Amino acid sequence: MSTSSEHPDWTTTGFSTRAIHAGQDPDPTTGAVVPPIHQVSTYKQDGVGGLRGGYEYSRSANPTRTALEEALAAAESGGLGPTADGSPAARGFAFASGLAAEDTLLRAVLRPGDHVVFPNDAYGGTYRLVHRVFGPWGIEHTPVDLTDLANLDAVRAAVRPGSTKVVWVETPTNPLLGISDVSALAEIAHEAGALLVVDNTFATPYLQQPLALGADVVVHSTTKYVGGHSDVVGGALVVAASAQLPGGLASPAGGTDVAGAVGFHQNASGAVAGPFDAWLTLRGLKTLAVRMDRHQANAAAVAAFLEQHPAVTQVIYPGLASHPGHEVAARQMSGFGGMVSFRVGTEAKALDVCGRTQVFTLAESLGGVESLVEHPGRMTHGSVAGTALEVPDDLVRLSVGIEDVEDLIADLDRALS
Ligand SMILES: Cc1ncc(COP(=O)(O)O)c(C=O)c1O
To answer: Is the pTM of this model over 0.85?
Structure first.
């Protein structure tokens, strides 16, 4: 909760300063330097409607969640600068999970008959939401390769001006680590009157800030790198203040801005982050930059090791010169992240590697301090088997943690031999 103006304008400071301070002024009553966990559902009113600081009921707003929402908005707002009237350039919204955030966004901006352009490689749960939850409500979608940087005509062909309301992008993608050109896709989406939504979970706001590249909305599973310790499930939306609802849609709350509509739906549907989850996520955000530096240094070393290993047929890491999206990634990201995928020729070999590591834990999810290994085909992406998003069955995905890199490489060497 921002209560003091005795600090710099956080929009002008560096990423780590924003992540540690924005939205997190010392508590005005006690001076506590960390926002307290406001484990409370309701707030005393000073006479009917006399709210203290705007707090009425914790589904609508809670001070710990507000701190997280302001911090996330500041983290994603690098390069945007303040608006002409000094209001924030983006608004943050925290949810109970990444999918709850996505569900709320799609309900806020789509109506039956609308169409979504969707990546042909993306988190399986997002595809399941678009395909199997929104499909029966009359939302159509077209999976397209959004990472074929030389052939954006395929994206132009998939967009249906007038009915495409969202172009959904993940970059890097999960699990094939494909790179999309956010600025180019923003142009295509906007020409068609659609919003560009970027799932920034893999890159994190430390390495990539899609709003400054032209995106309208950023989505996060904060369960991953933002939380960073595999101890909380959460999600977030960060919406550019300038983003307008597509197709002349009006928000049920009145107004035509996307942020207003998302705010209405967040309260009306109610899938909000609880106070303790918000507090844990905020704690993670403060150390995001230093963790990411180590994640990606370890990932680069692991990718280099795997590239020369005879049992590995392909290594997929945007930091490798061999990656087709390397140049675009270098332009729009300030680092290549902590995820590495690789192929070993057969499903049996992939399952074998996943079962033999000792330092890499066999588990779903990613982005925590501990290294994880998984088989996307059978685990995180099992729900897209038989669809356009099916992943190769010999693929292994690593979430490279921040342990000592020699131990990680020795573990993989043992598992591969
Ligand atoms: C890229 C990406 N987006 C969204 C999600 C969904 O987030 P959550 O599991 O927090 O609902 C995930 C989960 O793995 C993910 O990897």
So the answer is: yes
